[in-house]
Specification:
By secondary structure, this protein is α+β, with helices and mostly antiparallel strands. It is built from 6 helices and 26 strands.
Length: about 400
């Protein structure tokens, strides 16, 4: 239903530092990324560089740019034994000129921890004005309704120590095959504060937070603030499958496919990171997050209209509302990133010409006339933040 055909035409290659002078890289744009990767002995020793490089290229294509499982020691191509533990690796992503044929939106990454593992998330909305302003994201007060619906998980923010946030559940693995039913991109904020005079080690898991609380070393305050923070990179699972590019380090970014749509008559652009339906997640390269389905009927969701059958050639999906403007000063109360999918179609598929639908009201005007059908709901919630809309 949501599937987009994206022909990146891209090619990714991996090299460690002694191989940086390959002539192959000269004619294209190269983006350096440095990260620590755990070696999993993915490849066996190759006898020559010419044998090793095609293996690397084919593997990365199959993994859709997921880098966390690359056995870089084997990419040394036959002259060295396996490395052990964590190594610093220079990863180079090589894109051909046709990458520009896949429009994307680029979002900054934020580091985090979950069960001791380093992860990266993106933040797009918050239910609290102060948090939205501090983070530079869109204010969506109605997200707080997700708490009562049990559609959130806990995130811990340490208030008086400089460390990443601690998330309680992450996709396992990242993407449509996730089997962790506790994962959701919607997080209830908990504030952790170290007691005066206490040593402040880095906390990397909820278990460590609870242990520190039990020992009287920290206090934990649960808030009614919800933030939208999809997990887009893990050390064990690599990048979100739909990612077009990622620079996974503090201060880095991720590029995700740009989704075109209309809302309130305006052109808008969005991304999709999570879906409560496995097939939808697979078609979008997103995380499967069945817990999001609890948002249905919570008051935190709105309708997203997806067309089937014949339509105007310029037709895109129609969102019920968009932020006005995108950012912490949003005043559009109907906007939310949690969307309930509603299928719509023209009743007469043989008609001559189809109008371009740009607004929810247009749909229901035509439904009333018998020219369109709307629903029933698909029973799917998607996390589809609108990142670009007119600044009215």
């Amino acid at each position: 239903m949501f599937k987009q055909i994206i022909n990146t035409g891209g090619l990714m290659m991996v090299s460690i530092l002694p191989m940086l002078t390959f002539q192959f890289f000269k004619s294209a744009f190269i983006a350096p990324i440095v990260m620590d990767l755990t070696l999993f002995r993915r490849f066996r020793t190759s006898k020559s560089r010419s044998e090793c490089i095609p293996q690397a290229q084919n593997y990365i294509r199959r993994r859709r740019r997921t880098m966390a499982e690359l056995d870089v020691g084997r990419y040394m191509c036959g002259r060295r034994g396996p490395f052990v533990g964590l190594v610093s690796v220079a990863v180079f992503i090589l894109f051909s000129a046709t990458v520009n044929a896949a429009p994307s939106l680029t979002v900054p990454l934020a580091p985090g921890f979950s069960n001791g593992e380093g992860i990266f998330v993106i933040t797009t909305e918050a239910s609290d004005a102060a948090v939205a302003a501090q983070s530079g994201v869109t204010l969506v007060p109605r997200l707080a309704s997700l708490i009562a619906a049990n559609a959130t998980s806990n995130v811990y923010k340490v208030t008086n120590a400089n460390q990443p946030n601690i998330f309680t559940a992450i996709p396992s693995p990242l993407g449509p095959d996730n089997s962790n039913a506790d994962y959701t991109p919607f997080w209830r904020l908990n504030l952790v504060t170290w007691q005066t005079g206490r040593t402040r080690p880095t906390l990397r898991s909820e278990a460590e937070v609870i242990a520190a609380q039990a020992a009287g070393e920290v206090t934990v305050e649960s808030t009614n603030i919800v933030i939208n923070c999809p997990v887009v990179f893990t050390q064990s699972g690599g990048a979100l499958p739909g990612a077009l590019g990622i620079d996974p380090h503090p201060g880095g970014t991720i590029s995700l496919p740009r989704i075109k749509g209309f809302a309130s008559g305006d052109r808008v652009f969005a991304i999709i990171t999570d879906a409560s339906d496995k097939d939808t997640a697979a078609s979008e390269g997103a995380n499967f997050a069945p817990k999001m389905l609890k948002a249905m009927g919570s008051g935190a969701e709105e309708d997203l209209y997806v067309f089937s059958g014949k339509t105007n050639p310029a037709q895109d999906r129609v969102f019920e509302a968009h932020p006005t403007p995108v950012g912490p000063t949003n005043t559009e109360e109907d906007y939310t990133p949690a969307w309930n999918i509603v299928p719509v179609a023209f009743t007469n598929q043989s008609r001559h010409g189809f109008p371009l639908i740009r607004d929810e009201e247009d749909i229901y005007d035509l439904v009333e006339k018998g020219e369109m059908t709307a629903g029933p709901d698909a029973g799917i919630i998607v996390n589809c933040p609108i990142l670009r809309s007119p600044p009215k």
